[in-house]
Amino acid sequence: MADPYAPVAADAPSSQVPALRWDEPPEGPVLVLLDQTRLPAEEVELVCTDVPALVGAIRTLAVRGAPLLGIAGAYGVALAAVRGFDVEDAAQTLAHARPTAVNLAYGVRRALAAYRSAMAGGGDLGAAAGAALAEARLLHRQDAESSARMASAGLALLDELLPGGNHRILTHCNTGALVSGGEGTAFAVALAAHRAGRLQRLWVDETRPLLQGARLTAYEAARNGMAYTLLTDSAAGSLFAAGEVDAVLIGADRIAADGSVANKVGSYPLAVLARYHHVPFVVVAPTTTIDPDTQDGASIEVEQRAAQEVTEFAVPPAAGAEAGAGVPVAPLGTQAYNPAFDVTPPELVTALVTEDGALSPVTGSGIADLCARSRQA
Ligand code: MRU
Question: Which pathway does it serve (predicted)?
Fold first, then answer.
């Protein structure tokens, strides 16, 4: 097998394997995931035949990122339905597998509504399962379309904010094809800038503790032939101070009604740095990530994860090896503060780019208008 850490050809696809796909082998329908815990060492598929397997994959981050979680949740409901499990129960479990990304509950809700309405319309179980699957496929397609529209709206905004091209963009966590039915959110904008010849450099935060930046964004950037440089999260301050960052582009896991943005922990410090250094801080997310039922940032439930993710350094497993415990970097029994996300207040966000265009400034009334428009579309 090729060395996964060797330089990558510029025209290599972002991955040989899609982040997620529905399959129907003779043994019965399955949801197949690209196991993101194994990247970049190897592209291994994880086959889910039931909802507990999918919930496990969601909790371990084998499948992750807000839009993809929504798609996985919708297919999970379809999987329960076609395999004859208790659909209502499966939907409940799936919707609560992780608490912060609102897309997960949204995707589950859509597939469940399709299932329920087929049942209420007198359909049999097979027809209702078919309706849930059709809804999951529709969400998958819509997310790919949203992704393409965000990329062009985001590129237009960058050109407006930073005339002259040669953008040096800092990003955090992973927001590319690994989190979406298409090419992603923030990463898709950087990729559009690269393809247009206007990306000078993508600065990639490693994104401690689970290294989504180092393992996944660097992987996607390399495969797309982008000029990128990896940095430790704590090096971002000196990079700003050196005048090396023109814009920050990040995704979101939930956007509250007042415009507060929950995203991977470490996003809020970047917003503060960006404001201090007069650098645009741009959030790129589909409207499915807006949650009008969550009033403000303080009301967003932030997932707290195991101390072990901080007290041990999780080296990605080598090809073929079991994913084991990481290397301890703190004395045994050390407590750790390990929120998976943080919340950036709307006043620190220069613009929110969605598939329906950009919103700037980000305010509660702007968010309400955006939601009303996207409901009509
Ligand atoms: O914990 P993860 O890896 O699921 O977190 C993902 C992020 O925080 C992404 O930045 C976010 O989902 C936006 S991706 C479109």
Answer: Amino-acid biosynthesis; L-methionine biosynthesis via salvage pathway; L-methionine from S-methyl-5-thio-alpha-D-ribose 1-phosphate: step 1/6
Q: Is the CB of 311 under 6 A from ligand 1?
A: no
Cβ partners under 8 Å of residue 121, min gap 6: none
Output the pLDDT for position 3: 59
**130-135 LR contacts (CB < 8 Å, sep 24+):** 132/74, 132/77, 132/78, 132/81, 132/82, 132/87, 133/22, 133/75, 133/78, 133/81, 133/82, 135/74, 135/78, 135/110, 135/111
SS (H, E, C) 299-333: HCCCCECCCHHHHEECCCCCCCCCCCCCEECCCCC
351 lines ligand 1 (CB under 6 A): no
- What gap in Å lies between CA 349 and CA 276, rounded to an integer? 13
Closest CA to 51 of 6, 18, 81, 9: 81
pLDDT tens per residue, range 77-100: 999 999 999 999 999 999 999 999
Residue 317 burial by CB count (10 A; 0-12/13-18/19+): exposed, middle or buried?
middle
Tokens representing 233? 């999260």
Q: What is the mean pLDDT of residues 303-321?
A: 79
353 closest CA partner among 362, 340, 344, 363: 362
DSSP for residue 113: H
* Contact indicator for 47, 19 with CB cutoff of 8 Å: no
d(CA 324, CA 361): 45
Quick check: ipTM above 0.90?
yes
Residue 263, ligand 1, Cβ within 6 A: yes
In angstroms, the CA 169 to CA 203 distance is 6
Predicted confidence at residue 315, as pLDDT, reads: 62
**Which residues are paired to 341 by β-bridges?**
264
Backbone angles phi, psi at 120, to 5 degrees: -65, -30
